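Holo prediction. Input below; ligand is D-malate.
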Amino acid sequence: MTKILLADKLHSSCITALQEIDSLEVINKPDLNETTLIEALGDIDILVVRSTKVTAVALEAAKSLSLIIRAGAGTNTIDVKVASKRGIYVTNCPGKNATAVAELALGLILAIDRRIADNVIEMRQGKWNKKKFSKANGLKGATLGVIGLGSIGQEVINRSQAFGMKTIGWSRSLTPEKAAELNIEYASTPLEVATKADIVSVHLALSSETRNLINKEFLAAMKKGAIFINTSRGEVVDEEALIAELSSGRLFAGLDVFAQEPSAGEAEISFEIAKSLNLYGTHHIGASTDQAERETGDEVVRIVNNFLNGAEIPNCVNLRRASTAKHGIVVRHEDRVGVLAAVFAVLKEHGCNVQEMQNQIFEGALAACAKIMLDAPAPEEVIKHIQTCEGVLHVATVG
Ligand code: MLT
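Structure of the complex:
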């Protein structure tokens, strides 16, 4: 029986669908944290997480773990490097919560422009202040700058255009042609977006290239009174520099993510930026709509089913993209026990390191063809030796 641990809260439709899989034992412990996860992983084969951190310590202790599914887009809360070292697949559910995150980004923009939260606070305090809250720029005709044009960035653009906004965008892979297709102005640098936009919205995955990409220079280049939105990851922004811009009153920000945000659902927070009066902060809720959680849950179930059926695992983030193995052998052989074992024994004897392999069976299951890629060309004597193995029909080299 394969054991799956759900270490965060998932949509009920996902839990039910997993429980209906006969060969799966579902352990639902949504309140685990990075420490309690270590023991809970025991003999677990599949782990599903949202915010719970998966550390190197947890991975080293999890002897049976073969697959981690991040029920969201980002995998920065998982030590992917250590997972790769231990041969554990790490997958995510990209695009499934893009609409939800885009909705929140637009919500923050509207809320800041009209100062909706401040309106509500004062009304709850028994104050009527039409005079103070009657000033807003409005969105029609304003320029929205989008940094990062994956599925979330594109959903934000679609919605902003419905509000009559102009859009300028930057991403690492954006070309002028692609910008024209998206009906946005092309920016060749993030700084160009900062200088031209009235509102900037960031939609970047966290990586070594994007950490602190929104730095002091970027924020200083933004127009006075501009709005800065981040619903991606706190670490893509230099928070100190943003705090300075908010305190001086030059910028407004809507943030759903923070560098020091807790991974637990409830916690006390003391980070400085949360107190800023020019900030509308939310509690990393971008992905948390019923629609998004249901679609993400469906994707979790699809990944689990593929894993259980031995099919290709979708959305794997830690497999080498393009093989660097340029050389290999193609062995046509009889489809019976021990033939491939003998081929591998020869490769071992000659110190040939296998990188990738594929074995396809022909109709009738009497013969098969194995393509075995190596990290160096197979010497002539290896080919000759394999040809002598019982059950081998033919050997050729590739590369
Ligand atoms: C994501 O990476 O898509 C979100 O952080 C998901 C979540 O809030 O759990």
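The mean pLDDT is 96. That is the main takeaway for now.
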